[in-house]
Structure to design on (634 residues):
């Protein structure tokens, strides 16, 4: 395994799509080599990518907007990664679509890496695999990674929290204000994009959003950018808004704070996953069964049993 | 705290509704006295209640069916508890509805305890609070507890797994077969109830269900019982089906296995919650921050950091 994995990581660093795809699959499937892969990726990290999250309700045009931003960053000559963890995204469809999903215009561009991640059901699955997948894309030389999620569930909010900048997409006539308020999305949005801005109600939607933003007492006021992603309109304005937010992050020290919080979350997620697998081992040893039987017989209360379980899981071996 | 809590537990054992409600609130809110409450409840458990889970899609008539079963068990002279953890249930409405929610006909019955539990957002919240709430109801002398959940999310499946017998409710014309297959609910159902059986399509729905059941290779074949809960029709047939399943559970040794699995899950859930709060303490100590900073600086990979976190959380004090 060891030399195979280190070859794979070395090949991924050269930006070879197949190696990148293979590593992300291993990460996503919780391969036994994951620990080693992560250590190798961390050992000599050439640079840190800018992570931009895109989220919003289904039908708002997230994938088209992602495509538009890929174009915009490519025009700057940047290598771009895309992670689509949106189950409604055409890039996902609930499963992996092979090595490298071909996005219309970027099929032959060696500097664009697009990857779908299956949104796994188990607790913490996504939150735990995504940082590792980002690391693979960084190792492959991506300077910016767009993470596309759908803005509904907790898992997606968790993924949005992986981003340096979170873009919330809305469209006129979707009852946006209400949605935003309900989802508590105002707290996570760094940039609002009102897509399909050639539709009626765009000005009203923008106004409503700006009023909500004015009421929120936050040091950063999210700009509201109208776009028509299908025609590429507004791409430069979105990128300018993203640059503005990045400058704010760097100037205020918030970038370091966010990345620090991200690292904390990742460490915790790995620790909990590790512990769960130790519990499973203890179940294999029947130790957990013995504790459960004693709780059933009212010999032990479950808190004391949990303490014994943690103590057993904490002992090496 | 100590004597107050033990007085409360003693009063709850006498079946006083206010003490029962107060204890369940404490359990649900993660009161600091929880550990002590649980220990007291476990110390001298008079008997074990029969736990019956009711689940199904919104609009199927779960609350009406729960009410019908409360009646049926009361006719047998049994003391009955109800835990409604269905966010769409009129008993919940997303929050606690006071000490003891008055269900139409049981408002003045001292042998019926009805309680709504807010379905909390955080991971494992419900799975962790429900067993404790069940314990309170058992201490109050409930011989049967009905746990009403909505059959959609993982949390609800987790709660269903707390039951000795899980009843899945369906209604004709809701695309039941597809729903059942999709939700993997066939694996958790011990008894199917087709409610609103005065509607067109009832026979077709029952046939479709029986065909699906026949295809599944399980030692227990869930019976399919038609009801019209609104008029109390089919109550005795449901109770007979529940008795049949209980006899199967006892005869096959499955009852012990299920309760054993339940105790394991509870111990694990408590252990994970305990560990999380230890992580939070370590964050307070800035130890987690130091680990995160080292990961950010690529001094440490996150797996090694997670190992250090677990080791630190495992050390007493």
């Amino acid at each position: 395994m060891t030399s195979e994995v280190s070859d794979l990581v070395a090949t991924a660093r050269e930006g070879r799509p197949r190696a990148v795809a293979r590593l992300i699959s291993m990460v996503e499937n919780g391969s036994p080599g994951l620990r080693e892969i992560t250590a190798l990726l961390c050992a000599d990290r050439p640079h840190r990518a800018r992570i931009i999250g895109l989220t919003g309700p289904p039908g708002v045009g997230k994938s088209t907007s992602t495509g538009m931003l890929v174009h915009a960053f490519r025009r700057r000559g940047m290598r771009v990664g895309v992670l689509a963890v949106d189950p409604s995204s055409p890039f996902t469809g609930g499963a992996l679509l092979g090595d490298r999903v071909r996005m219309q215009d970027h099929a032959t561009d060696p500097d664009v890496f697009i990857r779908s991640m299956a949104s796994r059901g188990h607790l913490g699955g996504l939150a735990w695999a995504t940082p590792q997948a980002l690391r693979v894309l960084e190792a492959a030389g991506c300077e910016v990674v767009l993470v596309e999620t759908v803005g509904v569930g907790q898992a997606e909010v968790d993924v949005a929290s992986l981003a340096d900048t979170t873009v919330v997409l809305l469209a006129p006539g979707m009852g946006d204000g209400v949605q935003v308020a309900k989802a508590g999305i105002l707290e996570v949005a760094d940039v609002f994009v009102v897509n399909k801005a050639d539709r009626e109600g765009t000005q009203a939607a923008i106004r409503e959003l700006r009023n909500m933003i004015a009421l929120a007492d936050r040091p950063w006021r999210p700009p509201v950018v109208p776009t028509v992603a299908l025609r590429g309109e507004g791409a430069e304005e979105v990128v300018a808004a993203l640059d503005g937010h990045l400058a704010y992050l760097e100037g205020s020290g918030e970038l370091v704070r966010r990345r620090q919080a991200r690292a904390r979350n990742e460490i915790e997620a790995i620790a909990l996953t590790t512990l769960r697998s130790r519990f499973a081992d203890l179940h294999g040893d029947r130790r957990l069964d013995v504790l459960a039987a004693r709780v059933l017989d009212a010999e032990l209360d479950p808190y004391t049993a949990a303490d014994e379980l943690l103590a057993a899981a904490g002992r090496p071996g």
Q: What stands out?
A: Residues 254-284 of chain B form the longest helix (31 residues). The CA atoms of residues 31 and 306 of chain B lie 28 Å apart. Strands of chain B lie at 50-55, 80-84, 112-116, 144-148, 165-170, 191-194, 224-226.
